[in-house]
Amino acid sequence: MSISEQRAGKPCYIIAIETSCDETSAAVVEDGKIIRSNVVSSQVETHKRFGGVVPEVASRQHVESVTWIIEEAVEKAGITLSELSAVAVTQGPGLVGSLLVGMVAAKALAFALEVPLIGVHHIAGHIYANRLVHELEYPLVALVVSGGHTELVHVEAPGRFRIIGQTRDDAAGEAYDKVARALGLPYPGGPHIDRLAHEADAAITMPRAWLEPESYDFSFSGLKSAVLAVLNQARMKGETLDPAHVARGFQESVIDVLTEKALRAAEAFGAKQLLLAGGVAANKGLRERLKARCDEAGLPLLVPPLSLCTDNAAMIAAAAFLKWDKGQYASFDMKAEPLLKLEAWSV
Ligand code: KG4
Ligand code: ZN
Hints:
The structure is a single chain. The chain is an alpha/beta fold. The chain folds into two domains: 3-128 and 309-345, Nucleotidyltransferase, domain 5 (2-Layer Sandwich); 137-303, ATPase, nucleotide binding domain (Nucleotidyltransferase, domain 5), CATH 3.30.420.40. Helix content is 45%, strand content 18%. Residues 21, 146-148, 173, 176-177, 188-191, 194, 278-280, 282-283, 310-311 line the site of 5'-O-[(R)-(carboxyoxy)(hydroxy)phosphoryl]adenosine.
């Protein structure tokens, strides 16, 4: 008899651990959609002074935090360890040293509790964050925009992913962070640029990288270079530019391309919903533009609340439920995979 059958009729409590980058998080989710707890400890203050995530520092902080975060997640969920149905963990992609900390903790817990271990793709997690607040309808298209990823994903059925477009160089969030740094704004720069772009009364026009007409791929490094060139030229001429005008020009370029390609993909793949996911989904300008375009097209736009856009373990538990449902468990020799492919993870 499978574990799913043994537990038929009982709630499924999955504890998930997420340590792929600079957030240490543990969460307990009931039946793939009810958040019982979602504890997130951000290292952003530590990495701020370096202007970006320092991998070795991140791993060490995960080691210090992971145990108490797991304990807190179980306590806040109001359940006992013996009630847990499975342990899920982000297998990749991410920083290998950081992933390893979560992986070891998850294996130890699953082994001690004698429950299944489930490896989860980080991007599947970002997409299924939406499942915690919305009913999903397939086929759907997801726009995943974070510090490490910019992807358009066709999800034909639950857990069946196909990447139809991705960045050829920098991720959208990475471009935000680099441009913010050039403007002297603190790390992470996304929210600061977003705020400045809204305050601006004008924009310095920046190029848009549409690439080949039929392509769903993205490219942001040319845009980043264009911003740096504008700033350098002004410096050489002794002119001062209003950072808000630069921020607005940059943000408009990013939003134009993301929105157009996402809507074109949704139409081409007959999507019933467009999902927004990842840290950059917090961007006010992007949300507003997508909402307006989706309303025009009569396409439902699903966006998770801000706390579920950035890295958190509840989204990992939500994606893990897909594998739980199918009895697709990992073995104890599962490895952290910094370059794990989304398609390969499909259920
Ligand atoms: O998903 P996430 O928390 O971590 C990764 O998996 O990368 O995304 C973090 C990224 C950072 O690059 C940050 O600057 C960006 O999301 N971000 C934003 C905004 N809030 C966070 N970018 C643009 N506008 C925002 N409001
Ligand atoms: Zn992420």
